[in-house]
Amino acid sequence: MAPKTLGTYFAYPAMLVLAGLVFVLVQHQGAELTAPMLVSPSPGFGAAVVASKAHPLLHVLIALVVIIVCGRVVGALFRRIGQPPVIGEVISGIMLGPSLLGRVWPEAYAFVLPAAMAPMLGILSQIGVILYMFIVGLSLDMRTLRGREHTTVAISHASIVLPFTLGAVLALFLYPRVATNDVPFTVFALFVAVSMSVTAFPVLARILTDRRVHKTRMGVIALTCAAADDVSAWCLLAFVVGIARADVGSAFVTIGLAVGYAVLVVFALRPWLDRKLQRAEANGEGHGRFVPLAFVGLLCSALATEAIGVHAIFGAFLFGAIIPSDSALAKSLVQKLEDVVTIVFLPAFFAFTGMRTQIGLVDGQGAWLMCALIVLVASAGKFLGSTVAARVTGLSWRDASALGILMNTRGLMELIVLNIGYDLKILSPVLFAMLVIMAVVTTVATSPILHLITRRAPWSEESVSSGGRSLV
């Protein structure tokens, strides 16, 4: 075994142990901190969101029309300036909320998105996110990791461990200022740390595809690292949600049940499904009879993880991931779901997030400096963790830096995480607004910075089989 490779294997557990020690120190220091009193009349930490009575269908239809049209228009404008359209749709959702429309035209805001509509829009958003995570699972080809495990795991986990550690340290500063005293510091620190660690695999894939570099050597490395990052980050988030929804003792039971369910799905249900699909293909049967089964499985899996206590989206993602991504069933499901999810349900989710985002709460120089600090910590953690790990595994500084910029893409995945934190009352409205700003800023910055780094030697000039030391 080469000395460099051997050193990397020793560095990996050392990195995890060091991050664990830092978090223990942070937790010890945070136990002495006091957060401000809860002054909002809304339910406290961990409380369930209470749905209101049903509302007229007319308002829902009007709202969806406005949300979809505005999202498509703003998304098209962002596409013209070289940004992924999904970022325009995110910003459109924020513009339709109290941060812009509610300020400049309160009457229109009250008509299009009245507060009484929030529960209905929330249900549509939850369904949309569940279906979206199912599509992400269907599109995730874990076979791309084969032969690249060493590089992929090192880079992806370094891009999680460093921002996670920095986020936990940042929580010491944020907790006394933007948290509430009904939120335990450990839960707050864990959630802030996770929010610093997320990479948006679908948005990153879209950036690479738009630049036509997704099949180059570096494009494949970036996609596989982002995929491994996503899986690791969602497992970590499931752990944090399990702790947030229960006391420490019950949290370990929840986590044990979640791990047991994941093992059951991956090692029992997946082989059974593979055999069924292969047999049907060998017999010349169509996949049509598996489509209803897939939808029932999706809903049951989401129901199972929700009942366990780690959120329905994890079950949806897990069930999608066990269906072979190159199978006719997976392709058919993606084709059937993609348009309705991305055109109808996700814009509803962005508008729902926009209704919760009150940028006006980030008021004063001190608050904006705090927001800038959050952006800086999130960006530095992702960039440095990914870049250093990529350089250690053999990439050039240019490629390592470009990879670090790509892994800083957060987008929709970050918004899903933040909404979970808001639902659990871990995040206060002001911190929620700051983290939404961070998600938008870090994602918008990805494309222009990547262009600056790769403009002299674009990745499109490279192929997967290019010469030199191959990492893929």
Terminal-residue CA separation: 18 Å
H/I helix tally? 19
User: What value does the average pLDDT take?
Assistant: 83
Show unreliable segments: 41-54, 461-472
Helix coverage percent: over 70%
Strand proportion, as a percent range, falls in under 5%
- CATH topology heading: Na+/H+ antiporter like fold
- Tell me what the CATH architecture is: Up-down Bundle
Global geometry = globular
Task: List SSEs in N-to-C order.
Answer: HHHHHHHHHHHHHHHHHHH
Structural class comes to mainly alpha
Tally the beta strands.
Answer: 0
Number of domains: 1
CATH C-level name: Mainly Alpha
Describe it.
The model is unreliable at 41-54 and 461-472 (pLDDT under 50). The protein has a single domain (55-459), classed as Na+/H+ antiporter like fold, CATH 1.20.1530. It is 74% helix and 0% strand. It has helices at residues 3-30, 57-80, 85-95, 101-104, 106-112, 118-139, 149-178, 185-197, 201-210, 217-244, 248-282, 290-308, 312-321, 328-356, 365-392, 397-407, 411-423, 429-444, 446-454. The chain is mainly α and 472 residues long.
Quickly describe the structure:
With 472 residues, the protein is mostly helical.
Using brief descriptors, characterize the structure shown.
disordered C terminus, mainly alpha, Na+/H+ antiporter like fold
